[in-house]
Amino acid sequence: MVVGELTTNVDVAVIGGGPGGYVAAIRCAQLGLETVLIEKRWLGGACTNEGCIPSKALIRAAAIAHRSTHSEDLGLTSKTKVDFRKMQKWKDGVVSGLRNGIESLCKSNGVEVVEGRAFFQSSNRLVVETGHGPADYEFKHAIIATGSVPSVLAGIEYDHKWIIDSSDALSLKSIPKDLVVVGAGYIGIEMATMFAKLGSRVTIVYRGEGILRNLDPELGAEVRKKFDALGIRLFLNSVVVGWKPKGKRAFAVVQGKEGKEKIPFERLLVAVGHEPYTRELGLDKTGVSLDEKGFIKVDAQRRTTDPNIFAIGDVAGGPMLAHKAFREGKVAAEVIAGQKSAFDNVAIPLVVFSDPEVASTGMTEAAAVKAGYKAKISRFPLSASGRARTMGETAGFVKIVSDADSGVVLGAHIAAPEASELISELSLAIEMGAQLEDIAATIHPHPTLSESAMESAEAGLGKVIHIYKQKQSQ
Amino acid sequence: MATDFRFPDVGEGIHEGKIVKWLVKEGDDVKNDQALVEVETDKAVVELPAPAAGKILKIFPREGDTVKVGEVIISIGGQGERLQFPTPVHEVISKVVEAVRAPAPPAPEAPGHALASPATRQLARELGVNLEVVSGSGPAGRIMPEDVRNAASRKVVSREGAPIAVKEEKVAVREEFGEQRIPLTGLRKIIADRMSYSKAHIPDAVGMDFANVTRLVAIREREKAKAEKDGVHLTFLPFIVKACVIGLKKYPKFNAHFDEEKQEIVIKPRFNISIAVDTPDGLMAPVIKDADKKSVVDIGREIAELAEQSRSRKIRLEDLQGGTFTITNVGSVGAVFSVPIINPPQVAIMGVHRIRDTPVVVDGKIKIGKVMGISLAFDHRVADGAEATLFMNEVIRHLEDPDLLLLEMV
């Protein structure tokens, strides 16, 4: 590393080592560009270290614990004892293993990783504040991949003790007896479900009408069906208007339509979305401009309004999803290397590791109608799936939105075990411009959950096999 | 008073064009004849000039849209005038949308999404093809890689000469059972359509004769060096053009179009001679306008320029239009005789061939002459064999006696 007055010349400086940043850096290096990756904390970013990966590990463990103690009908009677510390240790191992893997990938591809904070000096210079002093870089191109930070809710600001964010929630030392979750987006729902399965009494407080409101409303409705069994209380059209600690517990005052209620909690998780992280980057020294919501403005190549600088991931707007950032990172790198890439994806899937899992890709029915299509809905209930029966998990459905005239698949919305895996077939169908017939005429292995996509497409074509006739959808 | 500017009939059977680039924007003040927009047709990119001075009130089609002849594309008002009437009917044809999503063309969530796989979309970016105006040949109108390659090969070069066309990979050749299958695309397709049309509709007859051009060869040798100084490589073609014009003046039925619809022969007042030019993409026929009014050297220069522009696809549409008679010079390649196909709606085409040293009988003696084969294909609906032969004789007479040619040129 270069310290002091010396300036290192690089082709590309990538700021932020999260999913967008490290992928962009590796692709840059693969394309022969001299690349430095600047990360202030840990490679992998929020996704690997305090988001996707740790949450999925804990959700998985919690689901096994819950399932094993609720399988009497399968002839299993057991009470699984949760050793939360050990569970956390396992999760930490998963996280550090993946983080080390990313570091090795960067190294083996020839990416120089620098720990520190980056500040732009101009459109082709930046300084990194490292533990050993500042380091100057002159770059031909920079990629901003600084991600996002949890939004703060006025009146219940994070103190990281009582009031926690999702990152805090995933590294708790003990399972809270009473947990209040403010927000009913995918993080709120995943955390609520996970802690409920680990034994917390969970209350969700949400100011809107329904949960998972960015998705097809049927998905949220399907997830809600399990709340009673999991002991999750749901306060819709409600807000937390105040809270107060009282000894070892605290109380939140929840204002709903019918009045106020005091709810005890050990932790209150605020999960009301994320904001783009652009502070302190020195963007004013560059030609980069932001939109009215604070996201960096980019084009299809992920070029900002500064011709030398690209932006990807959460900071560049659109759904805040690691897989979107992965793709953007590759696009930006390829464009910098002179290739004609573009972020032109039609289907950006979104998955929620709820119970059942839900996943969505492409257009909802409402969006399709708004876009001028004659939307057709095809549906297959999981209860008709042989595989779902053998798993003892029959809640859910596969719903496909297509254009009635052409049969072209426009969107898909799945509530099912492994919905997160099932959705990709439909994303591929959408990207390829496939028709319902293409899915219906493709052989799907039996007995699997994936057959549900084929059956749903067949239902849409009016020739489904495994649904009773009177139940058949239009 | 606002002026509606409609996409004009540019002739040559062109019914629609694609808006490549707007050179003005709404609110701009424009002068009469100022270039407004670049439009790409099957043949070339043309700039359309403003019909009147004024302020641009409204621009209707967007870049990339296809417009039909007669469609309003821009509204121009007097200074300060505002658009007062509702938007006139503007039919934008996006074939993709038509094929895939009829009847209601949507504005999909991801704007500009055409029905094509990610790999096809990448190919389109690499070939510079706008998928929104490509019609898909796949199921439900899906755009296939071949469609993109075909669209790329149809592209012509912009007026500034910035090449839009992609030279390599023009045609999607595919291997099937050891055979190569080459789809008809771009210019090849246009040629195929026109030639099929010609052969299917025109009862053509062909006359052939020899011309002893010994003296013309001598004159051309003599004048060559002089022309070279003017930067013109003098070939026989400009002389042949001149000889044809003289013949056409005497036999105007061959300087004509045949109007299929009205079943009328249209004798043309101007002598616009189309010259068949072999280009890497296929045959093109740029036009020497008013060849009767130009010198041999000027015609020579113009042929060279237009041929070069044709080969590099920088030719302007207007230089491909308005031909009244075609000459195809096979001579530079070879052949004693060829049977050319008439270029509709024209009535006749003359093929000229390689000049060879040939024994000729002059005053009862055999001498070595420079002899060229000439063939004339003509529309037998318009003229009969006798007239065609007389026309050919007239052309030959002038080629054989350059003094006569020079005399007529004055």
What does this structure look like?
- The complex is a heterodimer of chains A (474) and B (410).
- By secondary structure, chain A is of the alpha/beta class.
- Helix content of chain A is 31%, strand content 25%.
- In chain A, strands 1, 2, 3, 4, 5, 6 and 17 form a 7-stranded mixed beta sheet that branches. Chain A has a 5-stranded parallel beta sheet with strand order 8-15-9-10-11. Chain A has a 5-stranded antiparallel beta sheet with strand order 18-19-22-21-20, sandwiched between helices.
- In chain A, strand 12 and strand 13 form a beta hairpin.
- The N and C termini of chain A lie far apart (65 Å).
- Chain B folds into 3 domains: 75 residues, OB fold (Dihydrolipoamide Acetyltransferase, E2P), CATH 2.40.50; 78 residues, Dihydrolipoamide Transferase, CATH 4.10.320.10; 217 residues, Chloramphenicol acetyltransferase-like domain (Chloramphenicol Acetyltransferase, 2-Layer Sandwich), CATH 3.30.559.10.
- Chain B is 28% helix and 26% strand.
- Chain B has 9 helices and 20 strands.
- Chain B has a 6-stranded mixed beta sheet, covered by helices on one side. A 4-stranded antiparallel beta sheet of chain B has the order 1-8-6-3, with no helix packed on it.
- In chain B, strand 19 and strand 20 form a beta hairpin.
- Chains A and B meet through loops of A and helix 2 of B.
